Amino acid sequence: MIPTYTAEERRARLLGGGLGETDTDAWLAALEGLGLAPEPDPARLDPDAAQAKPVIERARAFCEALPLKSKRSPEERAAGETLIHLLAALCVRFFRIHREAMYRRLTGDYVRFVRVDDLLWEAAELWPGLLPARSEVTREQERMQMDKDGLEIHQGIFLTHLMTERRAGNHLLQAMLRPKAESLELLPQLRKNGAIDLGRARVEVRGRTGYVTFSNPEYLNAEDETVMTAQETATDLVLLHPGLEMGVLRGEPVDHPRYKGRRIFDAGINLTKIYHGKLGYLSFYMVRDLGFVNKLYRGLALNGWEPGEPENTQEKPWIAVVDTFAIGGGCQLLLVVDYVIAESGAYFSLPARKEGIIPGAANLRLPRFMGERMARQAIMFDRTFYVDSPEGATLVNEVAPRERLDETVEAAVENALGAGMVSAGGNRKALRVHQEPLDVYREYLATYCQEQAFCHLSDQLIGNLERNWNAKEKRLR
């Protein structure tokens, strides 16, 4: 929720932070004097953006003139927060009115399918100030997370308002379900060689199954932008390959002394990179959830469909193999695959409260598996679930000792393929009709996009990482 301030509070907070009286009064007058269109009007989009631009740029200049966020006095911090909140409220007003006209312009009246990251960078070029440019976000990533002043919040507000517009939101989700250009270019190589190394992920063809393994051994296979990019490309390749009928997800062995030589499925989001300011809101959370994770759940949208029509996707079933643990984002993946095999003694958890972020779409999906009461324990009270327990069985289909895990996976693959895969895509779609049609996911994102942006840039996130993760002592590798 964006805080509101009375006129007196606004002025007092800005003056208290050291902003000059003349500058403060002039800026507040300009903010109050914005005559934005009272209702949607495409003809007013550019004039309204031109009005808002200098107001936003002046507020950002005020923030830049303050000390770094972590070095500010309480009064300077209050002034900075007030500026960020007033700009956020301005963006809400603007995007509420102009979201659909903006999306039409960006997509050529719904002709172009544009990925979410490209969409926002293009929007920043067309309407500077309202959305941060790529160069501005890149420059801010040179700061520690605690010193960022919230440029990416505008991205979250814009996406939230797109998701409240049914046609625009569904069109954007379809854009993110289309295969990446890189994946289409690499497909012939996979078909020819039977394997492809993507750096942080590898795809291997074994018969009619594509095996995808993730690798980030320095961070216990934690997720960041490099891992997520490779994961999505690998997922595309398995779904595109005409000779493959299903996929298997698994983590590679790691180097950490405690787990040396052992496989780990997924340690979740890379908290060290967040703390050091190296994980972007758009380039990680949004691209991951709308792209990689949603492709596992829905497949590829090779052709579009209109809102209300059945999803027209090409999809295949997936098996996840949980070695050691599936934490955070790793647990989220278990909610979108079709079958889970776990090593005896492994566990899964969603430590979102201890991290200070929202765990993707787990708030939407986890209650379907274990009920809302237990899901709240997982998300809000940091409960860990061991796969051998009755509660663990709500997410895990089979448990096997480490030495028998490979043969258990092979048996599950053989059983699935032996039954014939003709109806697999149809059955997945039929299950989603009740559980999570695209409109339900879009409506969830209408809350998630904005709330995650505020979480990602909150003081609480930093406090949680320092208190629960000893983040001050962690160094980038």
Please describe the topology of this protein.
Blueprint: H1 7-16, H2 21-32, H3 45-65, H4 74-107, H5 116-126, H6 134-140, H7 153-163, H8 166-177, H9 181-193, E1 195-197, E2 201-206, E3 209-214, H10 225-240, E4 246-251, H11 271-275, H12 281-298, E5 318-322, E6 325-327, H13 329-334, E7 339-343, E8 347-349, H14 352-355, H15 362-370, H16 372-380, E9 384-386, E10 398-400, H17 405-418, H18 424-435, H19 438-456, H20 459-468
Parallel strand pairs: 3-4, 4-5, 5-7, 6-8, 7-10
Antiparallel strand pairs: 1-2, 2-3, 8-9
CATH topology of the largest domain: 2-enoyl-CoA Hydratase, Chain A, domain 1
Q: Based on the coordinates given, report the CATH architecture of the largest domain.
A: Alpha-Beta Complex
Helix content: 40-55%
Order of helices and strands: HHHHHHHHHEEEHEHHEEHEEHHHEEHHHH
Distance between the termini: 36 Å
Beta-strand percentage range: 5-15%
**Which structural class do the helices and strands define?**
alpha/beta
CATH homologous superfamily annotation of the largest domain: 2-enoyl-CoA Hydratase, Chain A, domain 1
Q: Round the mean pLDDT to the nearest integer and report it.
A: 96
